[in-house]
Amino acid sequence: MSWSRAGISALFLLFVFVIQEAAISKISLPISGFSLYLAVLLGAMALEDRSGAIVLGFIGGLILDFSPTADSPVGKWAFVLTAIGYVFSTNRESIGDFTARPIAFVFFTAIGSVLTLIIFLMIGLLLGENSGSFSHNLVVVIGNGIWTLIFAPILLPLLVKWRALTLTSRERQ
Amino acid sequence: MAAGSNNRSRLLLVILLVTSLFLITLDLRGVSLTKGSRSATQSILAPIQRGFSDFFSPVGNFFGDIKNFGKTKAEVKELKAENAKLKTQLVLNADIQGQLTKLKGVLNLAGRGGFKVVAARVIGRGSASTFSQTITIDAGASDGVAKDMTVMSDLGLVGVVKSVSSSSAIVLLMSDPTFRIGVRIAGSQSIGVLQGQGSGTYNLQLLDTSGSIKNKDVILSLGSDNNRPFVPGIPIGFVSSVDHKNASLTQTATVTGYSDLNGLGVVSIILQAPSGDPKDSLVPKPTPTATIYVTSTAKPDTSTVVSSKPTVLPSPATKKATK
Predict the structure, then answer these.
(1) How would you class B196 by CB atoms within 10 Å of its CB: exposed for 0-12, middle for 13-18, buried for 19 or more?
(2) pLDDT of residue B72
(3) Would you say residue A32 lies in a domain?
(4) Which one of B33, B125, B199 has the shortest CB-CB distance to A26?
(5) CA geometry: angle at A128 spanning A123 and A133, to 5°?
(6) In this model, does residue A15 exceed pLDDT 60?
(7) Host domain of residue A102
(8) Which distant-in-sequence residues (6+ apart) come within 8 Å of B75 by Cβ?
(9) Which of B1, B20, B35, B134 to mutate to test the interface with A (most CBs of A within 10 A)?
C-alpha cells in the first residue's frame, strides 16, 4: 500500500465515519444497530495485501478511537483492528482474490465484523471494563453481524470499484 | 522475496500493536492526550449531526413503526403524487409538534422541582460499534452546559453529561452498564444503588440491611455533593420485581425506568438545582382509576343491584398512562 493510497483511504474512512456517526446511528434498526464504518473498513482490509490490511486496520481503529461517543481507552480499537488486519490478510491469502468470489467476500466481512466486536469485548474484559450484560452484548454482536450480512452485498461492490479507482499504476501491475 | 515481505509485515504488525498498547497505557494512566481530540471531533461532528437530525428525525423510527404499516397502506395508496410534498411537510410538522409536547413536559417537571434548566434537542445516538449508550444533544458549553450535569426528560432521569464541546454535549444514558446512581425509595426513604443493564430495566441494590423494597415503589435520585453529577429528587422509575434471595444481606430489585430512552427527542440539562431537596414532590402523580363493583343479590324480585363505588388506585404505570 502506497503512502498516497493510505492517505486517501484514511480520508475515505473519515468520511464513512462521519456518515456513520451523523446518519446511520440515528436509524433505530431492529435487533441492534448496523456499523457501516466497520463493514466498509473490514471490506477494504479484505482487499488489501498483508501490510495494507494492517495499516488500514490501525488507521481505521484510530479514527474509531477518537469517536466522541467512544468510552474505551484510546488505542483499543487500533489494537483490535490491527490484529484483525493481520488475521484477515493471512486468511485472505489462503482464500484468494475476493473480487472473483463475492459471496465469500460478503461472509468474510460479516464474520469479521462479529469477530472484531468479540475481540473488542474480550480486550475490554482484560482491561477491567464493564461492558454490560452478556445477553445485551450478544444481541449487539449478532445484530451487527446480521446487518453487515444484509448490507454487504450492496456496499462491497461499490468498495471494490472505489478501490480500483485509487490504485496507483504500479499497484495495478 | 516473499519471506522478506512477510518479515516486513510482521515488523509492521509489531510496531503498530506496540503503538496501540502505548496509547492504551497513556489513556489509562490519565494522560489527557485524547480529551482534546475527542472534543475536537465532537465539535466538527455536531453541525453535521444537526443537519442530518432534521432529515432523519421523521424516518429514524421507520423500522419501529413498520408493524403499523399495514393499517396505513390503503391510505398511502390513495395519495397522489402532487400531495407528496405536502405530506412530507405534515410529517415534519408532526415531528415538531411532538418535540414541543416533550419540551412542555420537560419544563413542567423542571418547574415543579424548581430547577434552572436548559432544553436541548437530541441530534445523535451512540454509534453501534461502541458498546456505550450515549446521545448527542445540541446544547453545549456556550449554553452553560458542563460535564457531570444531570439530564432529564419529561418523565424523569435520562443520564449525565459525559463531555461537552462549545455547541453540543454527549450524555451517558442511565441504561449504560457503567452507569451507577445513588437512589432512595419515595416514602420509605431507604437508600440504594441503581445500575444500568443496557436496556429499559435497572438493577437496584439496597444499602440498608433493614430496608425493604415493594413492587411499585417509586425510585428517586439521592443527589450528590454540590448537585454534581446528580441533583436529588428526580424520578427514575418504579420497582417492577423484587428478588427474594435469602442468601444476600440486602435486598435487590429490578426497576423499570420512566423515561423511554429510545424515543428521546427533547431533554433538559439541569444547570442549577434549588437549595433545598425537593423530597418526594416530583413523584409522578397517580392517574385516578375508577373501579366499579357489581353485586348480584339473591332476591327474586330485584334481579341485579348495581352499586358503583369509585375507588382511586395509585397506578405505578403512570409513565404509560401519561404518555
Answers:
(1) buried
(2) 63
(3) yes
(4) B125
(5) 85
(6) yes
(7) 3-168
(8) none
(9) B20
User: Looking at this predicted complex, what is its ipTM?
Assistant: 0.84
Number of structural domains in chain A: 1
Q: Do A55 and B16 touch (CB under 8 A)?
A: yes
Whether residue A61 lies inside any domain: the answer is yes
Domain-located, residue A105: yes
Which CATH number does the domain housing residue A63 bear? Answer: 1.10.1760
Q: How many Å apart are CA B164 and CA B320, to the nearest integer?
A: 32
Give B-chain residues touching A65 at CB under 8 angstroms. Answer: 23, 34
* pLDDT on residue B316: 45
Query: To which residue does cell 477491567 refer?
Result: A128
> Average pLDDT per run of 10 along chain B, which is 323 residues long?
70 90 84 70 75 64 57 65 70 73 74 81 73 85 90 89 88 88 86 86 84 85 85 89 74 87 85 74 67 65 44 42 37
Amino acid at A17: F
* Residue range A112-134, pLDDT digits in tens: 899 999 999 998 888 887 777 78
A112 touches chain B (CB under 8 A): no
In a domain, A173, yes or no: no
